Amino acid sequence: MIKICVLHGPNINLLGVREPDVYGQDTFDEMNRRIKERAKAIDVEARIFQSNNEGEIIDIIHEAIKWADAIVINPGAYTHYSYAIRDALAAVRIPTVEVHISNVDAREEWRRHSVISPIVSGKIVGFGTNSYLLALDAAKNILEASRR
Fold first, then answer.
1. What's the CA gap between 61 and 71, in Å, rounded?
2. Fewest CB within a 10 Å sphere: which of 49, 64, 81, 110?
3. Catalytic residue among 80, 81, 83, 100
């Protein structure tokens, strides 16, 4: 079975409270429930993590090399400046899909630049919490295509 590390970055735990006009009404727990349901439906195992701390995110990425076939990550604001997270993802060489709930390309100028994007397999933005569900599908497809 394909195993996917789903990694939420800073402030994602505040979904439903934090700027619902931007991030939607889904709560963090509801989103994670939907991620687990989608994973089961497409026959993958999703292990979900969340951290507001850069170092802990890096530790989770390092640990994923031992068990994960792919990573789905929403680095939150770290997207725009964390070369440490970018380097960790590049180092583990696990296919990775970058996710953003809002359409970061239609928001403030500083949100339009990702230091993560150049080293990931793909990026899904702007579909609300459904972005994670699309990312699970994408990660599975990437892995299956590489095995052909």
1. 8
2. 110
3. 100
Q: Which CATH class is domain 2-146?
A: alpha beta
Residue 113 known to be catalytic? no
The pLDDT-based confidence of 103 (bands split at 50, 70, 90) is confident
Return the exposure string of 107-125: e unless at least 16 CB atoms fall within 10 Å of the residue's CB, then b. Answer: eeeebeebbbeeebbbbbb
pLDDT tens, residue by residue, 60-96: 999 999 999 999 999 988 998 899 999 999 999 999 9
Considering Cα of 37, then 39, then 43, then 48, what sign does the dihedral take?
negative
User: E strands within 17-146?
Assistant: 44-50, 70-74, 96-100, 122-125
Which position among 23, 62, 81, 113 bears the catalytic label?
Answer: 23
Active site residue 81: no
